[in-house]
Amino acid sequence: MSDTSETLTDIIELLESDKHEIVVSGLDKLESVLSDLVPLIRNGSIENNPFVTLQDTFDHNIASHLVSVYDSLAKEEDEDLLIRLIQCNTLLQGLLLVHPRSRVIFHQNSNMKAILEVLDLTSDIDVLISIVSTIVHIILKDLDNYRSFERCGGCIKVMRKFDLTNQAKSDLNYKIIEFLIVYLIDEEALNPTKTQKKSISEKAQLLEPEFAEIHHLIANLNDLKT
């Protein structure tokens, strides 16, 4: 456990640097650590791994520190750093896979905003696809994150990128449709929770300002499910 703790502390210190080259080394080190966990994920023995156990502690939760990297990377025009932003998304998705409880950090508006602001800061299609995929991982099975996403203007930000008339955006459009399938679930069918539930119609109203045909799209998506 102590070796894992030291490794996580090292990664966190690298991610918190104000120098991009040091942050990048932290991302690479984290990628290496997560890659080593893949065999454990495949054989179902990941839960009691020291890395996962330490994610329940404030000092060693990597996801909360990774969020701080987004703002600095997204504001750069450097192509290499944009690629690193995609790496950052992939790593966060991996962290949420091995430690789903880390989703709780996005109950805080500030952390949710850090992810959503990337949608405003770049027009790179590959980065946008990866950030929408990350949003899906964040809200999946967590109604508190649904509400946080909504409070932070996530519906408007995502739907602004949805353009069915632009063939160059087809892959991004497909990813946003994937997001919509997750977001527009019937919340009443979920387990009881203290979190306020919203109907599909209520959520559609949040999407409608940026996509007037949302009700028609929902009908088409429902047809696909039957």
Automatic annotation (TrEMBL):
It comes from the Eukaryota. InterPro entries: Cell_div_Cdc14. This is Uncharacterized protein. It comes from Scheffersomyces spartinae.
